Amino acid sequence: MKENPYSAIAGLIAEAGRPKGLAKPIRLRLGTVLSAAPLKVDVAGTTQEAERFYIAHRLLDGHEEKVSLKGGSGGFDANGGTHRVALVPGTLTVEEAAMRQAGPVLAPGDAVLLLTEDDQIFYLIDKVVQAS
């Protein structure tokens, strides 16, 4: 038996109307850190625990970044940015080093920028401050 052409068209329309990719829009949320270790964040009046977060790695305690330093008595270059320092006499060359954060970046009371699709899982993007 041949398929009803109207049913076939209705099926094609239904398929074309199904969402592709994300089912819900991503929303920005502002949160307030309640505790850094373990991580707890107040989001719209509810406390969210660490297991609900994906966090930018550089915000974690003990995060390390590789750096290189080169310079002389007038200043030094650190990963492409120039910094002034007095080195008398001689030069400074550090080909590769790791800079480690001294303590946690996040502290209770800090405002943080969050992304979420469902208010169940949050992506902690960065610490934010009020512009003045």
What helical percentage do the residues reach? Answer: under 10%
Q: What can be said about the biggest beta sheet? A: 6 strands, mixed
Taken as a percent bin, the fraction of beta residues is over 45%
Low-confidence regions: none
Main β-sheet, spatial strand arrangement? 3-2-1-9-10-4
Helical stretch tally: 1
Mean pLDDT: 77
Straight-line N-to-C gap: 73 Å
Secondary-structure element series: HEEEEEEEEEE
Q: Give the strand tally.
A: 10
What's the gyration radius in Å? 25 Å
Structural class label: mainly beta
Globally, the shape reads elongated
Question: How would you characterize the overall build of this protein?
Answer:
About 10% of the residues lie in helices and about 45% in strands. The N and C termini lie far apart (about 75 Å). The strands form two sheets. It has a six-stranded mixed beta sheet with strand order 3-2-1-9-10-4, with no helix packed on it. The chain has a four-stranded antiparallel beta sheet with strand order 7-6-5-8, with no helix packed on it. It is mostly beta strands. Strand 1 and strand 2 form a beta hairpin. The mean pLDDT is about 75.
Topology:
Blueprint lengths: L4 H13 L9 E10 L2 E5 L2 E4 L3 E3 L8 E9 L2 E4 L2 E3 L8 E9 L10 E6 L5 E7 L4
Parallel strand pairs: 4-10
Antiparallel strand pairs: 1-2, 1-9, 2-3, 5-6, 5-8, 6-7, 9-10
